[in-house]
Batch of 2 targets.
Target 1
Amino acid sequence: MITGELKTSYRADEQVLNNRWKRGFVVAALAGLVAIPLFGNNYIVLIACQMGIMLIAVTGVNVVIGYTGLMSLGHAAFVAIGAYATVIFHNAAGGVIPENLLTLVAIPFAVAVSALAGIIVGLPSLRVKGLYLAVATLSANFIVIFLIEEQIFAPWTGGMVGINTPAANLLGWEMESRRELFWLIAVLAVLALLAAQNLFRTRVGRAFIAIRDRDYSAEILGISLYRYKLMSFAISAAYCGLAGALFAYFYARILPEQFDLHLSLMLVAAIIVGGMGRTMGAVYGVIVIVMVPEVIKVVFGALAGGGAELAMIRAPIQEIAFGALIVGFLLFEPFGINQIIDRALRALNRWPFARG
Amino acid sequence: MGQFLQFTINGLMSGAIYALIAVGLVSVFKATRVVNFAHGYMIMFGAYFYFTFAVLVPQAAWAPEWLQSWRPEWMLAMRADLPMFSPMAAVLDWLANAPRILLGLAGALVCNAILGLVIERTLMRPLMGQSVFAMIMLTVGLISILSGLAQLIWTSDAEFVPALAPNTPIRFELFGANIFLFGTDLANMAIALVIFIGIVLMVHYTKSGVAIRATAEDQSTAYSMGISVPKVFSRAWVLASTTGAIAGAILATRNGISPALGLFGFSVLAIVLMGGLDSYLGVFIAAMAVGVLEALTQWQMGGEWAGIVPYVAVLIVILIRPHGLFGSKEIERI
């Protein structure tokens, strides 16, 4: 609880960043973001870009799992649809739309296609929930990846061997280096986070939370499950589609296997680690999920010094660490890092009086 | 018509193995209300344990000679008189492997039972009484742990493992069509069906089976009637992991051992949901149906399309009947 924040108007109470601590934190975080491309080396920019893309997707997953309470294990499919929609749009509309505007049209197109796919995949959520929905979305993921790999669609998707992706071009600004692309990713990620934070003080967001807490009670209160569940799926798929579009611009080539079950599990793991149903949870979760394999890589590099044997066991160790993160947080801190930080802030705020 | 019958029979044989795997998932769900997403990876461990005890251990320097290849005098004498490729020779070859097959099965059963117990005791039990979501996500985390561990332990490339039964080709005529089968496949199907029926009978008629059903019905009532619910939980997990071990051994002889075995579990998950999570009959029918559908898809559209048959089927069934073909409806009260 933050004390000493006396609000004198409704306007102040309704703000997205409703106290000065939050505002200060956001300003500091933005300053840190600007510092990355100006002062960071290539490695830091690479990791930051990966985090930004993941963050957008995880925010989307948080909408559907964390806020609406619909279990989904198939969100990598929407990232895939976003990425492939961008590439296909570039290849199809390359001659029709001027080069300078292509990216500006392609990203909304990818988001729209993903949202549409989200509505279709979300249809089972009207009939089933919980476990059945998890398996239904998992099936959707397998089917989407299969269709992308299928020979019939290979002229458009490139099939199993993947497809080369275009570079982003914002009104003539050709973003070829990762440092340039970072600006686009960072701006979109911050906007996505703010939009998510804002969503949950609107009627729609409150309806989502009501559905999560008890769906039948929500329906009795006059919330149309039919409408809001599909809306939740559409919004989260749109986020994932945006992440997919950036994914396509960021990497020189995309492969179907990059979007398989492992990515879906990573997205879910990130919100379990970070804290479900909290906006900042996605941020903490993404930082941990992206950093842990990197830290293991660095540690192994220092230990092995290029030894082949240690390098062989690095990938399995990374995989075990990933699973251990999920299991550990579920067993010992089910509300994630967000809860730990809240507790620490509370203790700091009340110091030297009551802790906890 | 001949092709159709051949592929249908092939489908029934893989359907029986699906049913064997599914029985583990259903038993754990019935007892604990948890669906084990990592079941495929437990099967993979079973396959690797079978490989260890049937191939690696007999090859070791300290293992006795007869374990690797058992050739008593009378077998050599019999073998000498037989022509090449005779069915009897195949049986004798299998008999020479019998000691290591038995050791492999026993080792896989024991090790997988321990694995199931450890998972239940250290990971699932602390979450007892918490939300089902947490328990299911925990099994999702288990996927990565198990697949990473398997890569750490069994770094060597998987080799050929001995089949569970003599691999004699069998030919016969059915409705005027020539059918061609392998003895191993037929034996695998028989093993799978016997175990499936055995478990269904056990759950219906034995004391511990009744305890599992009572726990499925109502946990707190079962507790108050003197049933040790934690014991039921660990029994269900052991049941799942041991049936998984046998399924793993069968799959290892059919498709070879690879980390991709874990993915097999997801298609079985789809089958289980299709049949209804708590109905052995529904799951059996779904497993057989998907097995046949897969084989027919393979025949008509090629191998790669067969892989997504279970997922498409489960989506269609769930949209029409949300709780599967024979699953009981959950009644929710506010």
Target 2
Amino acid sequence: MQRIGVFVCHCGTNIAATVDVKAVAEAMKNEPGVVFSVDYQYMCSEAGQNLIQDTIKEQKLTGVVVCSCSPRMHEATFRKAAAKAGINSYMVEIANIREQCSWIHKDIMTATEKAIILARTAVAKVQLNAPLTPGESPVTKRALVIGGGIAGIQTALDIAEAGFDVDIVEKQPTIGGKMTQIDKTFPTLDCAACILTPKMVDCAQNEKIHIYAYSEVESVSGFVGNFTVKIKKKARYVDTTKCTGCGICTEKCPKKSVPNEFNLGMDNRRAIYIPFAQAVPKVATIDADNCNMLKNGKCGVCAKVCTAGAIDYKQQDEIIEEQYGAIVAATGYNPISLEKYDEFAYSQSKDVVTSLEFERLTNAAGPTSGQLLRPSDGKHPHTIVFVQCVGSRDTSGCGKEYCSKICCMYTAKHAMLTREKYPDTDVYVFYIDVRTPGKLFDEFYRRAVEQYGVHYIKGMVGKVAPRADGKLLVQASDLIANEQLHIEADMVVLAAAIEPDKSARSIATMLTASMDTNDFFTEAHPKLRPVESPTAGVFLSGVCQGPKDIPETVSQASAAAAKVIGLLSKDKLTCNPCVAHSDELMCNGCSACEKVCPYGAITYSDKEFRQPDRTVAIRRVASVNEAVCQGCGACTVACPSGAMDLKGFSNKQIMAEVDAICK
Amino acid sequence: MQEQTVKRALELLADGTVNRVLGWKTGEFAYDTTPAVFTSAEEVEKSFIYNDFCGPNLSKYLIKESRKEGKILVFLKPCDTYSFNQLCKEHRLIRENIYVIGVPCTGKVSAEKIKSSGIKGITGMESDGENVTVHTLYGDSTVKKSDAMGAKCSTCKSKKHVAFDELIGEDGEVNNDNARFEMVEKLEAMSADERYEFWRGELSKCIRCNACRNVCPACSCENCVFDNPESGIQQRAAVNSFEENMFHLIRAFHVAGRCTDCGECSRVCPQNIPLHLLNRKYIKDINEFYGDYQAGADLDTRPPLNAYTFDDCEPSIVYKKGGNE
Amino acid sequence: MQVNENNFRPKIVAFCCNWCSYAGADLAGTNRLNYPADVKIIRVPCSCRVNPMFILRAFQRGADGVIMCGCHPGDCHYTSGNYFARRRMTLLFSMLDYMGIERERTRVEWVSAAEGAKFAATMNEFVETVTALGENKRLEDLRCKSKQ
């Protein structure tokens, strides 16, 4: 039998003016288990807390009920006080007689009556409380960053800077991500490569950072502080320890007609290739789908020319297993496929390009060595039309409903750079709205309009029709002048919406991290915990969480790193003790609980049980990982046998509360 | 059918594929069959039967049987295979230890149904697949088989086996006509008062014999919540009337989304309470609210109560639903 | 038992999730928004912790109405809890209706931590509805015929 003490708080007059606190304290004396009941002016004051502690000792209390303000306010205070006096802090329950009683009722009789019921309910619950001890779990002091774009690179560098080991897994042969393909960056117009490649080199040279390029995450198990991750190192058919990156093989390879992904297929590479000059790691990779040697055993040129002897046609995919304390998702984005937007003639004319392709066409390392030339005939374009929001802010169902956020700024950049380099070029930008919030962003856009004379026209392009003479007839509406426009353009540039990388969905599943309907990772809290996923130990960096530009990505990447560092600097994690618990004797092993657990906290194992007839039966039973469980209780209702229960909110406790209210 | 089933049972016993056979044998009366485990060829030859009276669903017995030494042969009717699949899905059976022969079924005769038509003093019954000859103390009478089937079979949901190692006879088709929901619809169309009277009348007949729970293949828990002191609803005489009052409501919810509509609960109820109408209500609601779902039809779909979509209907749909008031 | 219509005060049990609805109820209090004292709140971590058994238990013990409040769909602290709760409650309420229990006695409402006013308004309305229905007798004695 519990020995329960009840403490009724006046909260000055906040409670005492509407609730007859003495009557409540008096009424509680008759409740089963209650050995002490008193009212006091301010329970949360030091004197009030001392009263609780002294009473616990004098009366040998095993449970405490405080009738006061909301538990969201002072539950922690009273729990600490109880713990100081030597009883388990989870033996304390709060009856909320302020927010949910005295403050909402005017009639003293009614409020007092209700306060008594609320107090009685808390007493009924404490009767069934059991001491709970928060578990502890160790922390593996190593972080994994999935994705080696600017987000992943920045996160990794910051974590390494703090002295922790960090691994980057990148599915491409080199780190660097989308930023490597970009020519210049807004609003300062410095060259992307000049600011990114030093960071890539920093990553490669940092002793704390290990880069698994051309690798993918195969599986993730475990929980915050203790993840076990299998990483597949895809076969490059090149020994990365021997390859010097001299590039002779990529010049001698006879297979010349492989579309070059780095330039978005606008020129060709060989079957053995290094994506670009500043690649990190700078080693060659054989594209198995296009290599004659690997396909039919006829060639072997690269092996012959390689002085380092690095070519290894027999190389296999390799799976390695690593332990991590924290995982950062930095899986990035891609422009959407423009198949559904045939009105813009993207698939009909080479001169209709996406903005990313335009970046490559203006980049010195691109297919035209930085000369802006029409892809169809290699001539200088004299009229260029930029179309904004292709697939963004699209409620028709074929695109994305969200704003891709970066297009307004990069289009202003493209328009400005075009006008600067080729002043004889007419540049039109069709937009729904121009959105340029951000430091120096609106100034940048205004420069494009005012200083560079870019024609900004509010309105959408209805159709792009390629003509036989090579011109593109652009039909559009000017919503402000309220007229139809027909422009004979040489090039059309489409600001395609961006979407999360396709690999993000499977990675989210492995991490048991949640995603929104657009496949962006969701945050633990959109405002207050923006770089954490709801799954403990999983953090978000870059566009995988939502569209953002480079400055924003970098700051978020550093924020995620700060959270990771905070986690890794702990030796042990204290867990919430109000977690689910499975009674193995009752568990059927049916997997219902596992299906509703948002955290992947439930696992199954076969265990031996002694039967009444002395035989031993093997049954599949669930167990809850207390370090992962967040205590929502979804499993307790899904469980058909009632084997699953929630500590601190057990079936019996809640039923006792129901009974006490309905008594 | 009898010969083919016995033949295969004997063959599989003889070649060592299995060491036991789970089937049916005659109970107290010829028409009252009971599940039985046969461990030898002699036993099979002597008492194994498969005929129009073999109503019992054998799948639940496999929970215990599949954990024993050696492989067991089981004969499953189409509707039983759904229960079998559902149990496999819930990891309740050790599939490797079971050899399933699917047997065709044209509906099983229910003695209760015949009795309810006014025929008394039954001493025996025979069925030729079309008609049932009923021997009574007062002479023989003939009933069309279609009129002699219980609720379980009169609105059969499927003649297709969804799990088997081999089949005897031709496999049938899933029946999608939703005829099984007719009685549920009828109830839904009543007024709340009428529905209340109906259920109060039916449920007050309950003697809490637990037959429905014990036969139900979805009620496969190691330890039932009604027997578990920690669940808060354990039955304790005269202390707690909660479980007494709510037994069927709670049980129906526990099996919601898992009940394959095998109809065993109503078949075994000694008080003839139409318990399947509770389960069918859940099945009908699930189909209407969340899309068609047949528990046990496969091994991998998520049970509807352990799944969700972002745009599921709100609970207020219950107020909006037509039919009455 | 004869109920005096004028004096009848319903017993209402409200299950509130810790993160949104319980905080919403607190906000109603902070803003001094009145709702009837007939409503008693039970705090649960998440709406998905509410077992249909609890609701049946409340009715059987004499509650006249049971309301469950949780975070708005999409806002669950545990990401998916209220989606499961929504399905469970939809099916349970539909079943209660099917058994002839007045459907207005049960309710689910999504109340965020910012919606103190909505919490108070919901409770006012719910209490009014249940008061109009009168005492809950059906679920208490579903099994046993009244002894007349």
